[in-house]
Amino acid sequence: MSLVFEHVTLGQRVLFGSGKAAEHLAAEVSRLGARRVMVIASEFEGAIADIVCAGISPVLRWHDVVMHVPVEKAEAARAAAAEDDIDLLVCVGGGSTTGLAKAVALTTGIPIVAVPTTYAGSEATNVWGLTEAARKTTGVDDKVLPVSVVYDAGLTLSLPVDMSTASGLNGMAHCIDSLWGPRADPINAALAAEGIRALNAGLPAIKADPQGLEGREQALYGAYLSAVAFASAGSGMHHKICHVLGGTFNLPHAQTHATVLPYVLAFNAPAAPEAEARAGAAFGTSGALDGLQALRETLDAPRALADYGFTDANIAEAVEIALPTIPASNPRRVTVGNLTALLAAATAGEDPKALADI
Ligand code: NAD
What we know:
Shape: globular
Oligomer: single chain
Number of domains: 2
Structural class: alpha/beta
Bound molecules: nicotinamide-adenine-dinucleotide
């Protein structure tokens, strides 16, 4: 990689510490001088939010969270924020909850403090997403980047192992896709490599000991790095495909990323030797795909899109929507033919190695 590049580092305060979320959140609310806090957490995440918000006095609690942020849910939350004259949004939950807070911030400019409870990484990006009439739209706006993130691995102990695996592999997808994203550069490659190392260490530790903090801390640290790398490098081929599978076919976000990643890696790796070597070294294996597949095997990771309701009959429509969005900078030229083959293999859960030669 040539050492001529342009890199933007996004400004954000990160407070990391297991068991410290309530203390860190109260300190941030006070530092920001917020008086009218709206806490966003889904019904299920409400119990975690109760613990996290022990040291603050919100004026509004909001529970109506739906994955991929349907526009009408965003509008209802924006109206409630305006009615209560909210001056700070605190979101406690996974990427869907962070996504709703971002949708409110996008039109109101209200700052966000994010307290993530999965490894989705949305809290560290300036990317927003909204879904309307089965089309997911995403955009970039610094208004939606949380001003602070409070990371507490203890809050992820309740995330079941299968969801931890899928969510952690969503983080892994941020790392790998950022190695050939449209703004890939040496700084985000370094962040991505450290993210791969941390996730590759943390996720098997979670599987072995779901209630242990060590694996959870590594995974959360890796998730943060992965998201910073992704925000800087921009969406590559992998994210463009998954975006369509989630937005148009309503497939679950983390599981979809976990399933599709080895196919995109197998497809792109032969044309991206530097990225491949970097990822392989971070996995500690001779090849990136070998490292990823060994990890997926240890984790018993999601394997086939068919398991999530996607069928061969959906492939042509998915290809039609995704193909024009894949960056021209992708290391391999993507065509109707090879994208169809990639999705067919991912739908059936076939060995991704065959994609290297199509
Ligand atoms: P999610 O937020 O929908 O959470 C999945 C499920 O896990 C939910 O039922 C949730 O209530 C539950 N959950 C969350 N934390 C838990 C915990 N600690 N213990 C037990 N259960 C818990 O899923 P996700 O994968 O975190 O986020 C997906 C969404 O985030 C998608 O809409 C995606 O587009 C978005 N996203 C956006 C970005 C970005 O940069 N804008 C990045 C990643 C993901």
